[in-house]
Amino acid sequence: MTTFEALTEYYGNYDEDGRLTSRHGKVEFLTTVKYIDKYLKRGDRIIEIGAGTGRYSHFFAQQGYQVDAVELIQHNIDIFKSKTAKYEPVTVTQGNALDLSNFADETYDITLLLGPMYHLYTAEEQRKALSEAVRVTKKGGIIFAAYCNNDAVIVQFAFQKGNIWTERYQKLIDPMTFKATSDPTELFQLYRKEDIDKLMSDFKTERLHYVGTDMATNFMRETIDSMTDEQFETYLNYHFYICERPDMIGVTHHILDIFRKE
User: Fold this and answer.
1) Is 45 in contact with 110 (CB distance < 8 Å)?
2) Contacts (Cβ under 8 Å, ≥6 apart) of 212
3) CA atoms within 13 Å, Cβ hemisphere of 137
4) Which residues are within 8 A (CB) of 27 and not within 5 positions of it... i.e. 6 or more apart?
5) What is the pTM of this model?
6) Please, which residues have CB within 8 angstroms of residue 160's CB and are 6 or more apart in sequence?
7) Is residue 234 a contact partner of residue 161, using CB atoms and an 8 Å limit?
8) How far is CA 21 from each of CA 86, 104, 253, rounded to the nearest angstrom?
9) What is the full per-residue pLDDT of the chain (262 aa) written as tens digits?
């Protein structure tokens, strides 16, 4: 099965928009928005590469920002378009994060790469996606790249769910380092900070923040989903307090690497 076939099948049967609008899913969404808002200025142009069903693109377009979205999967594009209000200054085109040749160099103030790195399985593809994101960003512009964290998945999926003792996953998880490998049938590529640091060493950028966007959230979904609004606000305050702490980021399922193009 090719990457495109695997992703088409997966996202055709998965409610990605619902994931980010559930109470526990809102933690990742609100954290990402909080950091984008730190750098977003009135009049900025935004590109979202791998926009999915448009949760972030619509959010910022509804605030009046010009957003150009790129998405690979037609099913997601159909949902994206169905949710687009007439007043939104947003476009969506089908495209691949590895080839943004339809977009000019140094066009965007804010570049969102919030999904593609999840599904790229070679260092060459990963560098290419980052290179394209950097290319279309203005000098001094800010890039937000999201990754799936290796060790949170090892704890939850491998140990809590018992998959580490199955023949299938014993082949994919190094027994000494517990680093997982992936391919299109597994869908999600997993990273550690040293992997991201190595990728970023190829680019002239300055890291601004390295953020755990959900931290412990996915280990306690039921608890968070059952919270009152007041309790959830308290949890968010705690989450925001710890989400950049180097001694705690390893617990997160999703990582947001934020850097400025030099």
Assistant:
1) yes
2) 149, 242, 243, 244, 248, 249, 251, 252, 254, 255, 256
3) 27
4) 213, 214, 215, 217, 224, 235, 236, 239
5) 0.93
6) none
7) no
8) 22, 33, 17
9) 666 666 566 666 656 666 667 899 999 999 999 999 999 999 999 999 999 999 999 999 999 999 999 999 999 999 999 999 999 999 999 999 999 999 999 999 999 999 999 999 999 999 999 999 999 999 999 999 999 999 999 999 999 999 999 999 999 999 999 999 998 888 899 999 999 999 999 999 999 999 999 999 999 999 999 999 999 999 999 999 999 999 999 999 999 999 999 9
235: tokens are 């949890």
Residue tagged 């040293």 (tokens): 194
Residue with tokens 């599904």: 119
